[in-house]
Amino acid sequence: MDTERRDPAEVAALDAYSHVVVTVAERLGSSVASLRLTKQTPYGREAAGAGSAVAVTPDGFLVTSAHVVAGSTHGSATFTDGRAFDFDVVGTDPLSDLAVVRVQAGDLTPANLGDADLLRVGQLVVAIGNPMGFHGSVTAGVVSALGRSFPTRSRSVMRVVENVIQTDAALNPGNSGGALVTARGDVVGINTAVAGIGLGLAVPINPTTRKIIGTLMNEGRFRRSYLGVAGGTRPLPPRVARDLDRERAIEVVEVVEGSPAAAAGIRNEDLILDVDGMPVTDAGDLQRLMVGELIGQSVTMRLVRSGELIDVAVVPIELDG
């Protein structure tokens, strides 16, 4: 019947959509592995969970989620061509929820890592992983939102993972560690969490996380510096805001006893303007500046205290995560 005939433009659009998803699946499917984790017990090795991982070099390095390999040092990685390899955990960074494992192989098909900073809301993305143990599963959706965040923990340390990608591509247990891919076939995220029906989250691949991944590959850990302050964004006093042509700073609401900040004399209600000349307006700005290179180095923090500008020298220590 004519009423059942579909609009040719709609059919063409659906065909184009299908072509993109099929092309991405074919290009990336061989780069995504299913992980089976084991842990050592007094009775030998026992199963310890499952997830996904993305090959990033031909010689055996794969990226996954830190929570997937938590508590394990070994396991097996199975690819869609049926090949299976034992792997060792090279390094984990629970505070970014990223980890690197390695298999003894020299001919893997590495995925191309993109830049999530170029994503736009509404952009088509494809998730590839192994939900519920089903190897090589593909789902598609869009970037639902950008700039999300979620808290992570490593022992007593809490941190916020920033600029997380939200997608409505279906994610299920086992997708963690898998790839979130653009229509061009670039991996822009490592799927990390299912926050609800139609709401999945992925750690972005960008210059910051590329650095973490590279450091994990080379050193097995990622070092961060630590000041020992907690705070939030606050407006500057009108006179200071006018003189500095700035509106906001970070108000210190807690100084950890025995921390570098405490040793430097930083106080509650101080307003942090910048660190070594780099302006900060929220906790995320300060968190991004706390790189490993600052450990043991004196840095100058410019503060507003009781309406006056002061400089304080602080020597960050290594964050014990």
Written description of the protein model:
- This protein has 321 residues and is α+β, with helices and mostly antiparallel strands.
- It folds into two domains: 222 residues, Thrombin, subunit H (Beta Barrel), CATH 2.40.10; 94 residues, PDZ domain (Pdz3 Domain, Roll).
- Helix content is 17%, strand content 45%.
- It is built from six helices and 21 strands.
- The strands form four sheets. The protein has a six-stranded antiparallel barrel. Strands 8-9-10-13-12-11 form a six-stranded antiparallel barrel. Strands 15, 16, 17, 18, 19 and 20 form a six-stranded antiparallel sheet that branches.
- Strand 4 and strand 5 form a beta hairpin.
- The mean pLDDT is 88.
- Measured between the Cα atoms of the first and last residue, the distance is 66 Å
- Helical residue percent band: 10-25%
Major beta-sheet overview: 6 strands, antiparallel, barrel
Mean pLDDT: 88
CATH top level class name of the largest domain: Mainly Beta
Can you list the strand order of the major beta sheet? 1-2-3-6-5-4
Instruction: Return the string of H and E elements.
Output: HEEEHEEEEEEEEEEHEEHEHEEHEEE
Classify the secondary structure makeup into a structural class.
alpha+beta
- Total separate domains: 2
Cα Rg: 23 Å
The fraction of residues in strands falls at over 45%
Number of helical segments?
6
CATH topology of the largest domain: Thrombin, subunit H
- DSSP E strands, number: 21
Uncertain spans: none
Short key terms for the protein model shown above:
Thrombin, subunit H, Pdz3 Domain, single chain, alpha+beta, 21 strands, 321 residues, 6-stranded antiparallel beta barrel
